[in-house]
Amino acid sequence: MGKKGKKEMETSKETFDPLPVETKAPATVVLLLNSQEEDVLVKACEAIYTFAEKGNENKVSLFEVGALEPLCKIISHSNNLVRRNAIMALGSMSTNGEVKNALKKLDVIPSLIEKLSNEEDVVVHEFSTLCLASLSVDYVSMAQIFESNGLPPVIQLLSSSDPDVQKNSLEIIFNLVQDYKSRQAVHEFGGMVPLLELLKSDFPVIQQLVLKVLQNLTMDLETRNTFRQEQGFEKLLEILSNQDFSDLHSDVLLIVANCLCNSETIHSLAEDGGLAKVMDFILLPSVPEIHSNAIKCISRSAQSCELLHEHGVEKVLVELLSVENVDVNISTCHAVAAMSLHQASKDTFRDLGGVAKLVESMSSESLHLKEAASAALSNLTHDKNNSMTVFEVGGHTLLIKQLSCSCPKTVANSASTLCNMAEQVKIRRGIWSHGVMEALVEPLKSTDSQILLNSLQCLALLACDSEARVEFQSAGGLPPLVDLLRSHHKDVLARACLAVVGIAIDEFPAVEMYKLGALELLEEINLSVNRRNKFSKLATTALLKSNLSVKYSLTGHLASTDIITHGFYDAGKVGNFAKKKKEKEENEPVNVVEDVHLQKLIKDAKECILPLNDKEQYVTLARLVSDTMGGAVDQEKLHEFPWLLHLSELKSHLQSNVVPIDLIKKAIYGERALLFKCLADQIGLSCTLVRAEYNRAFNEITLFDSPDSPLPRRYIVDLIHQPGTLLALNTPLALQYQSI
């Protein structure tokens, strides 16, 4: 090969000089992102960044021509300049919502976190944090940043000299600390110190972001302790004392409010003059938001009420209830509610007219204000004088109206307040006269447990009045009350049982609740280890007391205090009750027609028995019952006594299995014991009715053997073999009579 050919060959191996890239088409630039030439990549990324910075439409255009995926790869390029320009382009594009949503699917977060290392320059830090700040608004991305250990490098960047890096890092932290785990992590990784340092920043936006982060962090006890140890309070007080920082005062007060959750902090703040400074913000005219946040500090520090009382806080709060700003009013009501847990403040608020002003707030159109005012009244009315004040200014009428409010907390608070007030008889009747029983029906249908608890408690208390019970039944309150016996909320169930106890005092509502299945539900409750409570058995007893027929059928026992009246019937043991009850209802004219005979028997019993002494009264009554039902029958001839034939004839004649007791002329144990109990109850004698085996029955009485006897003795009354004989309980003769 000649020299000329060799030289031409060598020349052909040399590279071209760099070619300028000139294009106005985004798609063309994006194609260049696939180049292997670093210079091309540098210029392409720079061009994309410049184009993206011109507006959102350009960012979307770049996304639509496929710029995201290659950029996400190039940000990890080995060339520093390529890497920097690529992250600038990606960071700029990420501020667009559509681009941000697409980025979430590209798993770019680990690569972005890598760019936060100390080896990268400040520009890379700025745009990496910008991109992460955009992504961290999303909960899934927020979790990925946390799980990828993104918090430690972000916290380190709080100390960056670049304000944009600081701002972006604060935004990332603010988004992450919405979650409890991230709040703990910021504390554990030493984030408190650099955060407090940034309060000195010359940039208001950075100061405001720091305060918003601290508002979240100081919700946790450990962080609050660290905040105090790092002189956080002192730094906040410096801001509060500087009017040049007035735009920060509202956020600062929210942090102070968070920290006033323990007495140590409160006393420390009082000693440092911080509490007085907070009071200044309440007393002095200022924007409503600052007013409200200062009042929140009072609410949080209410556990140290004595200290607040010394500062005359109650007077200030009462005045603020009249301020024409709903947000200030709401915050004030919360503070009053918190301080009203202490008796001294309860008295002071009343003396200063605060109770009456809270009642006025219940007329507000603001649902939030009514909720806050009702909470304050609920706490205040634990004091009887405050309850009377609410009543005297007509607060009970407003509270009754709020039982139908759309806000669950207002309903619960109103029911609680009415319950507190109803403990006084005078107020109770006033409340009842304004339709509270009807108003309580709807809350009993609620699914909110606090509404149910408070409404049931109120109902149980108001049910002391017979007219209130009638009104409650008339208003349709029994079905929702009985339905609550199905509740699996332990406290709701207990209070429902207590309310049943109160309502079942009257026969009519008791019978209605029985028809609604209350007795079966109570039996289920009492059989359940998990559901039975101290009121469930009382409710069963109360229901049965007004349904003696049911009680006798279920328990086989009527006490001396269970007074048989017209309408009682013996349905036998529980298995026959439903059938006999239906038959009895179908044949109710029968009892009315034949009632004349029973009334004559009662009249005769009174005339011949009441003049006698105690023992002779029982003896004579036993003989009267025996004579009425066929006389004495020897035990050996009992099987010859035609009582069954007689009963069959009566049932055939009446066309019913229900036979009025006064028509029976031949009977043995069960019918005689029932008649004895019925007559004894009507003439004022005391006895029980006890069912024995084979549907037989007997009566127990209690007598003193003599006027000097220290204790009475219990006897079984013989009504059939030797009528009038009193058999001492647990003796052989008594046991024999019971088991025959």
UniProtKB/TrEMBL annotation:
The keyword RNA-binding does not apply. InterPro entries: ARM-like (IPR011989), ARM-type_fold (IPR016024), Armadillo (IPR000225), Armadillo-Ser/Thr_Kinase (IPR052441), EDR1/CTR1/ARMC3-like_pept-like (IPR055164). Keywords: Repeat. ARM repeats lie at residues 149-191, 190-232, 353-395. SMART domains: ARM. Transmembrane segments: none annotated. It holds the Pfam family EDR1_CTR1_ARMC3_pept. The keyword Repeat applies. Coiled coil: none annotated. Residues 590-726 form the EDR1/CTR1/ARMC3-like peptidase-like domain. This is EDR1/CTR1/ARMC3-like peptidase-like domain-containing protein. The gene is armc3.
